[in-house]
Amino acid sequence: MPETTDLLPLHERLRAALCADGPLSAAWPHWRVQAPQARMAEAVAAVLEQGGTLLAQLPTGSGKTLAYLLPLLLWGGRAVVATSTHVLQHQLATRDLPRLAQALARPVRVAVLKGRGRYACLQRLGDAVQRGPRPGEWERHARLRELLAWAGASAEGDLDEWPGAAVDASLRPVLVSTSENCLRQACPRWADCHVERARRRAAEADVVVINHHVWLSELRARRQGRSAGVPRHPVLVFDEAHALHELARHWHTQRAEAWAVSRFWSDLAELAQGPARGSAPWAGLALQGDRAWRSLSRALQAAAPREGLQAWPLSVEGAAGGGAARELGLALQQAHRALQAAQGSDARLGALSERAVAIAQVLQGLLAPAGGETGPGAWLDWQDAQHWTLVLPGPEADEAQARELATGASAGVRAVVHTSATLGDEPGLRWHRDALGLHSLTGLRALHVAPEGPLVGAAWHVPPDLPEPADPAHVESLARQVARWAQRLGGQALVLCTTRRAAERIAQALAAELPPHWRVLRAVGEGGRAAWEALRQDDPRAPTVVVGSGAFWRGVDVPGNGLRLVVVDKLPFAPPDDPWVQRRLARAREAGADAFEAVQLADAAMALRQAAGRLIRSPEDRGLFVVGDVRLRTRTYALRLSAALADWRWLENEEEVADWLDALALTRASTTRHRGA
């Protein structure tokens, strides 16, 4: 994006671009600027020219993306744009930025930079293929050969672009590198490294699109005098900025993820075929450690009371997991001693030794005595036997550290934009501002644009006859109603669940309720993008219901007919025994606030608005949002949460819902015929 030669000030160029006979109207005949969009674009232009930090909340469907991209491209400088999901990252880089640059006739170099774990590692893949198949693993080895051939021919090596079936999680340890096991300049494939190529593209680009986790990795790397490849551009934009709250948790935590522990033992086993093969019984050490890790996984599966983050008394002598953790700690200790003794014989030994120490430190949290006299105890973030994380909590990030995450102040960033539909419910956007320590920031501006009136095409409903979520019959009852609504509409429905387990159960129940030609797709892991593409295709011959959880509550754009029904399985309250929530509740009580209202109700209201926002992405969109939780009719807090959807039309009963769905189906059929004409 070359420096502009325009003589007009940026705000005048912006107004010219937004006017009725401007370049956007010429490029997109049916496009019309929305008043909230214009207000945000002007606020972004001001912060680009003057510096500072802007918090901007617009109603869902107001065009926030264009509101920051347009002044950014007209300004002509270089910027980093951070999103909350890979799906939104892809959408910005392949659709939004190119379309806008073409409309403005302004060439712009765009690069996508993902985390290291999204790129195929040619060296590790090549080593795995060269070692040959183990007994009974011919099919796995054949898949590795296919992946190596593809990665060698691919310009980017981005695993999201792999054309084959979803990559099995068991292949990841040999498919990608980590910052710990990467050989860097010592790697024979350094010149062809897909990670380094992506970083070089980012260094040359005008706009670099990353996700929030890459930004956190960059800040951590800079503290160690390194970089994760994010350029030091003067402008930083956080889309879906509310997601930064969760990232702020990770500043002072040490984490041992299941996949990382498993990968450590597989990397150790590889030493048996490298330069250090004769210096220690690597295969035996790896086998011992892998068995201990699997034993710990089984113990955790038996002990974890629920899904999600939880404090778990594994430090108590004799508790489930304590013995398995000690076995794993002993195996790590033996591996570390062997690695230290063999230093110098293989470039990988030093990094492996550091990884053994890091995992062992987290395990100490499990082995600390009850009461935590010699250790803080660990947290467990449990999803399933393959997806869990042990977290060793440290002190909470102070305001200065939270501000660094939110502004990149030490990185030379001069203009920062945070935007989302859910930053707060009052003009100062305190919910977001205070969570990230921004209240004392010099040059802070807040733009809170409230909905101008009721959303014409948006309605919502709470089924009055559902069992409460704690009732075992809730899932089947909700699935029956969703199946009925989806069939009445003709498909294109999304069910958002508060846990992975609930998503699995509802997906199974829906598959049993719907006709055989219907598609019930789980939007999880590698299958996420395929699920969203199925909605966007809007094929009447293959009606679709997508079931998702986690990140799929936010940041996904399925405009038009692609999505007409969104159902939330229950109110998105964080579990009260979540240790992070407990910290926030304690802070609220210390400040004299109603802790439930200030933390859990506020968070749930924002999450509901995010979920509803998946449905209405433009003024022309129509749809029905359903909350499958009767507590929204019966509890005293129902009014507070309902206010989050005050601009949506309320449907009281099933008859009104049926009429609304029939009208949506009629509109969909009409536009589908028009599109196919």
TrEMBL record:
Nuclease recorded as keyword: no
All copies of domain Helicase ATP-binding, residue ranges: 23-303
Gene3D superfamilies: P-loop containing nucleotide triphosphate hydrolases (3.40.50.300)
Signal peptide: none
Pfam families xrefs: DEAD, Helicase_C_2
Keywords: ATP-binding, Helicase, Hydrolase, Nucleotide-binding
Recorded GO MF terms: ATP binding; DNA helicase activity; hydrolase activity, acting on acid anhydrides, in phosphorus-containing anhydrides; nucleic acid binding
GO biological process: DNA repair
InterPro entries: ATP-dep_Helicase_C (IPR006555), DEAD/DEAH_box_helicase_dom (IPR011545), DinG/Rad3-like (IPR045028), Helic_SF1/SF2_ATP-bd_DinG/Rad3 (IPR014013), P-loop_NTPase (IPR027417)
Similarity comment text for this entry: Belongs to the helicase family. DinG subfamily.
Identification of the protein by name: ATP-dependent DNA helicase
